[in-house]
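Q: I'm writing a short methods note and want an example of a predicted protein-small molecule complex. Could you take the sequence and the SMILES for adenosine-5'-triphosphate and return the bound structure as tokens? Please keep the output block clean; save any remarks for afterwards.
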Amino acid sequence: MAPSPTIGRSTAPPTDQPPTTSPAILLEGLHKAYGSVRAVDGLDLAIAAGEIVAVLGPNGAGKSTTTEMITGLTDPDRGRAEVFGRPPRTAVRDGLVGVMLQGGALLHEATVKDVLALMHGLHAHPLTLDEVIERADLSTFLKTKTEKLSGGQAQRLRYALAIMADPQLLILDEPTVGMDVEIRRAFWASMREFISGGRTVLFATHYLDEADAEADRIVVLARGRLIADGTPSTIKSRVADRTVTMAAHGVDLTELRRLPAVIAAESTGGRVMLRTTDSDSTLRALVAEHPGATDIEIVSASLEDAFLTLTHDQPEDLT
Ligand SMILES: Nc1ncnc2c1ncn2[C@@H]1O[C@H](COP(=O)(O)OP(=O)(O)OP(=O)(O)O)[C@@H](O)[C@H]1O
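A: Understood, no commentary inside the block.
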């Protein structure tokens, strides 16, 4: 399990203002391979100070590896990562970066209060403990030992540790995993308040709706490459938002592919599935042109469907 890179005494002065005019994050030609696996494969990305950016991508897309290089936990094989114009480890050491990693280790046999107090002592200019506790909504389980925390409560403690140094950049790897809907809503409300002074946020998520609701910009990774970058509405307009399914008998797949707004059609398990960007117009044409279609259903596309649509034209190997 990766250690928290926020551990270590920060030496920087309070960081109320963005420290430089450089981008908050600059990645140029970033590569990282594990054996024959190209985890990150030539990534270029610039994120301006003050942006809230969601990183989406299917399992193994390279999101965590990218996060690790931005936070200095992993070195790139080739290319460059800078945070506010500094090498990542320097930016972390200077207290500019708060990180919340997926399943980041928490001290065992210690209460939430112990962990907070211990970590608080390591920062030069932290938020007050009271502010951290309030922002992360930890007051009701301060005396709970870390191993007794629920998944969502542990995430709130990790969030508290990420904001403690009062960082200018927050990097969050799937921050709301394990939180129920209400807690998730409260988490984002607290986060929005915290970052309202111009802080930058980069968060990885598997939830398209979360990216849509919380981010100014969405970047989509697949096989270690950037395959889409834009506002939530731009990204959504490029992905199928519905799947129309029906019994496979009495319909012709080739003809169905020609229906309006259909991106892809496939037959599996006795049913035909049409991915469409406009289920209303697809359905109207389907009923009019294919009276033999039966047992029709419309379902929201999963995020996997969205990724399939975006990655559809991506070649396996560009080299
Ligand atoms: N330490 C490692 N050793 C070997 N392979 C690794 C290592 N870390 C990542 N990989 C591989 O690199 C690829 C990218 O992994 P990464 O964890 O960055 O993807 P991800 O987008 O974060 O995935 P997920 O959504 O499942 O967390 C995967 O094929 C993964 O198996």
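A: Remarks, as requested: The first strand starts at residue 25 and ends at 34. The chain has eleven helices and 13 strands.
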